[in-house]
Amino acid sequence: MVKRIKISKVVSDYNFYPRQYVNSYHADEIVEALKAGVHMPPITVDKSSYRVIDGWHRIEASRRLWGGDAEIDADLKEYASEAEMFQDAIRLNASHGQSLSRIDEAHCLAKAKEFQLEQAVVATLLNITMERAEELVSNRLAISPDGPIVLKGSTAFLAGRRLTQEQVDYNKKAGGLPQTFYINQVIAMLEGDSVNWDNVRVISGLKKLSELLKTELKPVSSVARRG
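and the corresponding structure tokens:
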């Protein structure tokens, strides 16, 4: 059943979001489309709780453009369980809108365990093969104190391991590219004489990096000499 509801009435429960985060740039693109008069399809909402199942970016774009008191078309659906809600969220997000990234797919596979969904079921909903699903689980998931989590590009080498809280905290802040990318960026900046020596925060960061390297590289050097 489709009806008009206030944006402020919608509940954004990230437990049912198949993506890692709401993409601000994609929301901006929808804002421009709405300004141009493009009609967007209804969002999907759980009828009993008003939790969002599909349409997070459309909601964010509408909120930015018209505010929380504005109304939006919503398809109110009834679900037998929270597991069914999450399955529908995956199916809808995988079938239209911004494509799910590999990180998003791994996120769905990790969350599926919370809802006791079979890996094969999730793979079908994501429109991927079991081989790809197994690869994502092997290469992108680790165990945190609170359960499975998705690893970023610079922490992917920790896949399959049980993480410390420090590693979990770093993964939240980590970038999506391999560690060598960031290391090479610093090296290139120094070799290319492109450090902003007038920036106090830059200098402070480089000093801290230098101190950490002196401490952390000592054990590595000792092992290398013994080898």
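(Above: one complete record from the training split.) The CA atoms of residues 87 and 121 lie 9 Å apart.
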